[in-house]
Amino acid sequence: MGFGATVLLNAAAPSLTWFLIAAPLLGLGIGFYNSVLNATAQQAVAPSNIGQMMSLMNIGNYGVVPFGALLLGWIIDLSSGRVALAVGGVAALLAAGWVWSRARGEQPEGEV
């Protein structure tokens, strides 16, 4: 949820100066997201399937880039880059909320 909030913060920056001040937070958020995603995906499968899982994750992360670029390019043409950042921030918050609602209450066996 922090990543989505950081994207929205960057979208709401009133000037380039404020955007550049908030931009490092966005970089930290992306690094945190990738680290947690990789660790979670690797723990979710058997050690013999980690390579397959990581290749599927790469397809999921990078294979959809052309489609997202087309969509956000269209949004930028219709409005502005700030609106495209806001759309990305809202999408990140919705995705985080969906994952949180799915994972809530699920605990590995043996943990309290």
Key structural traits:
5 helices, 112 residues, mainly alpha
What is this structure, in a nutshell?
The chain has five helices and no strands. With 112 residues, it is mostly helical.
Ordered list of secondary-structure elements with their pairings:
Layout: H1 2-11, H2 16-43, H3 50-62, H4 65-78, H5 81-103
Helix pairs in contact: 1-2, 1-5, 2-3, 4-5
Distance between the termini: 25 Å
Largest β sheet strand count, sense and barrel closure: none
Radius of gyration (Å) = 17 Å
How many helices?
5
Note down, in words, how this protein is organized:
The chain is globular and about 50 Å long. Helix 2 (16-43) packs antiparallel against helix 3 (50-62) and helix 4 (65-78) crosses helix 5 (81-103). It contains 5 helices and no strands. The longest helix is centred in the N-terminal third of the chain and has 28 residues, at 16-43. The protein is an all-alpha fold. The model has no long low-confidence stretch (mean pLDDT 88).
